[in-house]
């Protein structure tokens, strides 16, 4: 059984967000497998770098959707993203500065659990809002003559 894995229970019901989460968890899993395999420093550094970049990409992706939809929970959710972004950069910095041979298991557990909890909590809450926002954008959902106010 993989260390970190996207399963249906993590679906937020929005494909573009689920796709990102599948990739994120796969990257955490890759990092775990590389640590377990005793991979060389540059291999671990590469995987960690890929994860860091993808975390940044994914958070920006969600935040674009918050802006587009005027999400009322934007600030709170964005602060959570910022906190993890800082932590992931610190993990990477520590690994590089001290040329650590490996990553402690707690780091891997922390990343996995943070993502699981965030997906099931904040991301799912946004997805509920986003789906209702999308439904309101459908022309057939607007009363006749309401105009095209986007
Ligand atoms: Fe997310
Ligand atoms: Fe999020």
Write the layout of secondary structure elements.
Layout (H helix, E strand, L loop, with lengths): L14 H22 L4 H29 L4 H24 L7 H33 L13
This protein binds fe (ii) ion (FE2) (2 copies).
Structure characterization notes:
Helix 1 (15-36) runs antiparallel to helix 4. This protein has one domain (14-141): Hemerythrin-like (Four Helix Bundle (Hemerythrin (Met), subunit A), Up-down Bundle). The longest helix has 33 residues, at 105-137. With 150 residues, it is mainly α. It starts with 14 loop residues before the first helix and ends in a 13-residue tail after the last helix. It has 4 helices and no strands. 72% of the residues lie in helices and 0% in strands. One fe (ii) ion (FE2) is lined by residues 62, 77, 81, 118, 122-123.
From the alpha carbons, calculate the radius of gyration and give it in angstroms: 18 Å
- The CATH topology: Four Helix Bundle (Hemerythrin (Met), subunit A)
Q: How many individual domains? A: 1
Q: Which spans have pLDDT < 50 for at least 5 consecutive residues?
A: none
Instruction: Give the ordered list of helices and strands.
Output: HHHH
Distance between the termini: 46 Å
CATH class: Mainly Alpha
Q: Shape, please?
A: elongated
Ligand types: fe (ii) ion
CATH superfamily: Hemerythrin-like
Structural class: mainly alpha
Number of helices: 4
Determine the mean pLDDT.
93
